[in-house]
Amino acid sequence: MDLRRLAPGLSVSEQIFPSQVAELKTAGFRAIVCNRPDGEGSDQPLFAEIKRAADAAGIEAHYLPAESGKVTDEQGVAFGKLLETLPKPVLAYCRSGMRSTTMWALSQAGQHDLPHIVESAKKAGFDMKGVIRRIANKGRTPIEVAEAQHTVVIIGAGAAGIATASSLLARAPGLDIAIIDPADVHYYQPGWTLVGGGVFDARQTAHTMGTTLPRGVHWIKAAVAAFEPERNAVILDGCRVVKYEQLIVCPGLKLNWHAIEGLSQTLGRNGVTSNYLYHLAPYTWEQVQQLRGGRAIFTQPPMPIKCAGAPQKAMYLSADHWKRSGVLKDIEIEFYSAGAVLFGVPDYVPALMEYVKAYRIDLNFGHTLIRVDGPARTATFNSANADGTNHEVTREFDLLHVVPPQIAPDFIRVSPLADAAGWIDVDPATLRHKTWANIHALGDAANSSNAKTAAAARKQAPVVAHNVLAAMGKANGCAQYDGYGSCPLTVERGKIVLAEFTYGGKVAPSFPSWLIDGTRPSRLAWLLKERILPPLYWKGMLKGREWLAKPELTDQ
């Protein structure tokens, strides 16, 4: 842990984990304050997990979350009052320690002079120049004063953001590009299914952000707080301002764990797990190995979600392990989906149904998980009746794999870029924003109807790269995205049903049927997923090599 002393009795740090709480106890800390909202990152434990560990260690734990870049004066006051009442020493944490430091700085306004606050923060490694204006101007920041300006600004350094930056540089070397993202680690999230199935080690899916970003791109290590599209400005944490000529928005989506009552209190214990979190995918595999009998439940929330096949992938790989271990006959497998069908593209359903029958999986459609009682090991679903009414169904479980509902990030949903549902409002073909011509969006946060997968981002990135350069007069024609998405459905260890499709559920195979028939389980498709796609991701897609991803151009 990187613990930084900020003031007498107060230290701040980056995100902590439940396994580190005992170490904090040994170091003498008597209280913990979490300033990071649950659901910000896929590698983030929930506060409930931290609190359980803190209670066990005899440490007070308090939750005072603030959205990144939106620490208010009121939160600063609340932090100060909390600090006065807590036993010392106290550790406050968020994603990086910046929000905690900002809250402290605001709480000290009027108690200490400005140089003292700034110098204390500087010694702890935090630059408070953005907060200086907040304090001096009583929260008012002149957005006309830009701290940085770039030709192209990209929000988000996930698969979509980095691939787009690399595609831009491949077409226009030397282009002035800045990527805004606060994360230190870039994750290959498609690999987490295989981590949960015992095929990959979690560490294989993580690379440092610094080594992943393309050379020549400016990395602004901060979170976005708001947009001012009419002024071509992005507002960062600490009220810093970045101006742009062209803006590309691809921040991913938010896992809404708190939409399911009781889930945050039991996630990561009592047999409740999810491959959608980096630190829990290994727990999935641990639980699958330990289960020798009983009931295993797998859930799927209402759409849209990233990788719509992921809930089933976890189920099939688990069932295959139990079959190979000789215990499948002693395990009841139940699938509860909020949707009405097993998979949205009918061509792939027959092959999947063969495995459903072979594994004796009980399918339950129209069921949305609404409540989890971990200690009692029960899951409660809202079930839709044929007449339009609903009733609750409660099932006991020995293993519960949960896929949470998914929404656009908070700063997107409340922004002028969002549609009525909170997603970024783009033209589905050009991926240009419907209101602002110098803004494009791609990846999970866009409202295009394609599947939210890394494969979709791989196809979208060249489209956005071309269209941004066309808007700048550096390219001719208009690139069109056809809605391509891919979902390698891991039906057993060693075989995959490779679903590939475009807008409207039209099957769009990348390979001839004699090589890989996507509608049938394939050993070659498994080798593609396990051996070829990871290096293709790191060394191809993220490097601007557009293999099988060249965009279609029109004259418009």
Q: How would you characterize the overall build of this protein?
A:
The chain is α/β, with parallel strands linked by helices and 556 residues long. It is globular and about 70 Å long. About 1% of the residues have low confidence. It holds the Pfam family Pyr_redox_2. Keywords: FAD, Flavoprotein, Oxidoreductase, Quinone, Transit peptide.
Give a short overview:
The protein is built from 16 helices and 29 strands. By secondary structure, it is α/β, with parallel strands linked by helices. The protein is globular and about 70 Å long.
Short key terms for the protein model shown above:
556 residues, alpha/beta, Protein-Tyrosine Phosphatase, Chain A, FAD/NAD(P)-binding domain, 3 domains, 7-stranded mixed sheet, 5-stranded mixed sheet, 16 helices, 29 strands, globular
Strand percent estimate: 15-25%
Helix percentage: 25-40%
What general form does the structure show?
globular
Instruction: Look at the helices and sheets and give the structural class.
Output: alpha/beta
As a whole number of angstroms, the C-alpha radius of gyration is 24 Å
Number of strands: 29
Top-tier CATH class of the largest domain = Alpha Beta
Distance between the termini: 53 Å
Residue runs with pLDDT of under 50 for 5 or more positions: 137-143
Please summarize the sheet with the most strands: 7 strands, mixed
CATH topology of the largest domain: FAD/NAD(P)-binding domain
CATH superfamily of the largest domain: FAD/NAD(P)-binding domain
Cofactor: FAD
GO biological process, one term: sulfide oxidation, using sulfide:quinone oxidoreductase
Pfam family, one: BLH_phosphatase
Keywords: FAD, Flavoprotein, Oxidoreductase, Quinone, Transit peptide
